[in-house]
Write a structure and sequence with these properties.
By secondary structure, the protein is of the alpha+beta class. Helix content is 49%, strand content 13%. The protein is built from 10 helices and 4 strands. The two termini are 22 Å apart.
Length: 220
């Protein structure tokens, strides 16, 4: 059977998937609160570790920080300090471990630059959303965060908003001060984050892979 249950819905989803981009610079105008709430709702619809035996309300948390607020400035300072610390650690390790010495150099430079100049996203992003996922067994909290952020990214694209993953937030679960700032229980949750706002310019197009060239149908 080759019939499509809802062709219009499928075409709309295809358009959203193709529109999804990573935005590096945001416009000054902040998106309406309703849009942020709808993006967060999309995050709640993502899969989570149901086998942990807890309802979603106990497994996933969100915190929204706005540009110009003291909480955003404090979060930036904490993340920058952690970047500096981690850059020092990795630089030292790269001198001791041959694999890191051969491969970690470019990433160390990125960390060092961010530690000195700050993350560019904080210069323009009107909104930072922190997502927390409770640790548990099986330990799938990182995958669950990825699912939630992908849902949020697609919803932002559907609303005409720009989106940027702020992967530096991943390391902030180790910071009691950062977790308290976000209102997420320290030691109990993994975190990740994203910036959301109107793009300052139309994102560039991207080259799409041809599924036929990268797919093998295993039928034997």
């Amino acid at each position: 059977m080759t019939t499509e249950p809802d062709r219009e819905l499928n075409l709309a989803l295809d358009a959203v998937l193709e529109r999804r981009r990573s935005v590096r610079r945001f416009a000054a105008e902040a998106p309406p609160r309703e849009f942020i709430e709808r993006i967060i709702k999309a995050g709640t619809l993502a899969p989570y570790a149901g086998l942990a035996g807890r309802p979603l309300a106990e497994m996933r948390r969100f915190a929204v920080l706005s540009k110009g607020a003291g909480s955003m400035a404090r979060a930036e300072a904490l993340i920058t300090a952690r970047l500096k610390k981690n850059a020092g650690r990795l630089k030292l390790l790269s001198k001791l471990v041959p694999y890191l010495r051969r491969n970690a150099g470019p990433f160390v430079k990125v960390l060092e630059n961010a530690a000195v100049n700050g993350l560019p996203v904080f210069k323009t992003a009107p909104c930072l959303i922190i997502v927390g996922e409770r640790k548990g067994f099986p330990p799938v909290e990182k995958q669950a965060l990825a699912y939630a952020l992908e849902n949020m990214w697609l919803k932002a694209a559907a609303l005409g908003l720009g989106f940027q993953l702020v992967s530096a937030v991943q390391m902030m679960g180790e910071s009691r001060e950062f977790m308290e700032l976000a209102g997420i229980p320290y030691g109990e949750f993994e975190v990740d984050g994203c910036a959301v706002g109107y793009p300052a310019e139309e994102p560039a197009g991207r080259e799409l892979a041809d599924p036929a060239r990268i797919t093998k149908w295993v039928q034997a």
